[in-house]
Amino acid sequence: MDVDSSSPSKYITLVSSDGFEFVVMRKAAFISPAIKSMLDPKSQFQEARTGRCVFEEINGIVLEKVVEYFHYWYKYQDKEDVPDMEIPVELCLELLTAADYLGLDSKERLLPSR
Amino acid sequence: MANCEVCEKRFTVTPYSRAGPNGGLLCPKCSKEAAKDEDANKKKKKRPNAIPGGSRSRRGVHSRILDGTYQTGAKPLMTLCIETLAKNIDLADDLGDLPPPLIDRISRLLSKRRLLDGRTLDLFLQPDAEDLKVYDAARLSSDDYIRIFQRLSQLKTLKLRNAIQFRDNVMSYLISRHITLNSIYLHGANLLTEDCWNGFLKAKGQDLKTLQVYFTDRHFSDNVVKSLNENCPSLARLKICHNQQVSDEGIKHIAHLENLEHLSLRLVKRTSTDAYVEVIKSIGSHLRTFSIQEVEDVDDRLLDALHDNCTSLTKLRITASQVVTDAGFVRLFKDWKNKPLNFIDLEQCRHVDAKNPRENAHQVGLCSDGFQAIMNHSGKALRHLNVHACRHISREAFEEAFSIDKEYPELLNLEISFCEEVTDLIVGCIFRSCPNLKKLNVFGCMKVKHVRVPRGKILVGLPNAMGMVIEGKDD
């Protein structure tokens, strides 16, 4: 996937440690400051050129949940009274570590930038 | 007699026998099952209708607004995970090596749900931990506290709320261990005796930088405060709240704590201005926090002392004084050498007279001029401002302070409840002048009626049933 820096693709690919690939909307994945900085065109990271992020620490099952969260967040970003997303109990700790790694905590950063 | 339609057993037919799905009859056992299924179906059908848009969601939203946890959009993934974890904490054996801020958030949530007991406490007792913060220790026993000191030999910061069973034997155990605490925060430990406090400060006071005690009843006395001077030379933060024993005499001893930077007092005994003035004159120049609550008798002399001595304050709180005057506040904030403050709380500094509540000939309390002086001095840096019940701030003063050419970029929280003159226009002006405002409280502002609240901001306490109306579309 070769991406021209002037018009980056609407989608990016996230790859888990065990090789599963998830294609996600760029806008949705950008709530994670970590992914956002990886894909910053100014950064000259390989990820920024290819639109492909490999996470060696996150396995497929957890990454799938993370991707689900990205879309859940995107869908509800401006809504009030949002239903909670189900978190499987057995994934809880791993997901927590992943969320910490991806920086999915601060409320300020999650607010839509308008 | 007939054969059952489902299980084909023979049974006695009675008037209560149920009809099966194909028109035959069912035996008592099978009818019971059928009845169960029907009930389950009914429940399933009812539930989904009840939740969306119903009163529960509206109530839930309001409850979260008052809790301060309200936000638009989805919850952060971290919050979702922590909530799930707290719900299922009985399944967890070990939290693994999560970073400390996360552990702290888990501890907070567990405490909120009152789930922190002897068993769940173990999750937080990592042998190399330097901090332990338990926000609700009400279910812990003396033995649990002792276990904390057995396991955590590196402990530096200890915070325990509702630590009722933190008794003398726990404290003596702590004294006997090689633990050097930098910071101790004890809330509700009202069974600790004065002797024990003295013993602790004598043994462990050398390294203590922070001492915060809440609800210690009669045991944390003037004498204990006096001994701080000797025993805790490096004390930088002192907070004594809801204390029934410390009086003017104790406050005067605080004046000798030369390294003190943060001082917060909320004493039950009546205190006088002189004691506070003495403190400010002695150590005011390097105080960064000065907070005194429920001080009915404190007058303008304290404000003048603050003006003359303090240069590094960032947080100032004086509440419920019925004697300070507007002129005093003007003198304090006008040409004050102190840099702009981040936090000002002057709740209930107002004139009280049941007969003529609106007359205030001597301009007692925070009034218009004082308010403007505050905004002129500290407006640029203010993050939290509380003028709750300062009823004599006029409409003109608010309009002037939040006029179109004024901007307060740092202001996050503004509390103007029970300021009678606040109108729709003023609330609108506030939203315009404070672009980063998160929350505005307007309880008891009866002239506020129909305000449109910009997205991302919260207006609490409107005097109507509608609540706040957010500007803009949903999508």
Overview of this protein structure:
Chain A is an alpha+beta fold. In chain A, 41% of the residues lie in helices and 11% in strands. In chain A, helix 4 (60-76) packs across helix 5. Chain B has 475 residues and is α/β, with parallel strands linked by helices. Chain B has a domain at 2-46. Chain B is built from 16 helices and 17 strands. In chain B, helix 8 (194-204) packs parallel to helix 9, helix 10 packs parallel to helix 11 and helix 12 runs parallel beside helix 13 (326-333). At the A-B interface, helix 4 and helix 5 of A face helix 2 and helix 3 of B.
Strand-helix topology:
The complex is a heterodimer of chains A (114) and B (475).
Chain A: E1 11-15, E2 21-25, H1 26-29, H2 33-38, H3 46-50, E3 52-54, H4 60-76, H5 92-102, H6 107-110
Parallel strand pairs in A: 1-3
Antiparallel strand pairs in A: 1-2
Chain B: E1 2-3, E2 10-11, H1 28-50, H2 55-67, H3 77-87, H4 100-112, H5 118-121, E3 131-134, H6 142-151, E4 157-160, H7 168-176, E5 183-187, H8 194-204, E6 210-217, H9 222-231, E7 237-243, H10 248-254, E8 262-267, H11 273-283, E9 289-292, H12 300-309, E10 315-318, H13 326-333, E11 343-345, H14 368-378, E12 384-386, H15 395-401, E13 413-415, H16 424-433, E14 439-441, E15 452-453, E16 458-460, E17 469-470
Parallel strand pairs in B: 3-4, 4-5, 5-6, 6-7, 7-8, 8-9, 9-10, 10-11, 11-12, 12-13, 13-14, 14-16, 15-17
Antiparallel strand pairs in B: 1-2
Helix pairs in contact in B: 3-4, 6-7, 7-8, 8-9, 9-10, 10-11, 11-12, 12-13, 13-14, 14-15
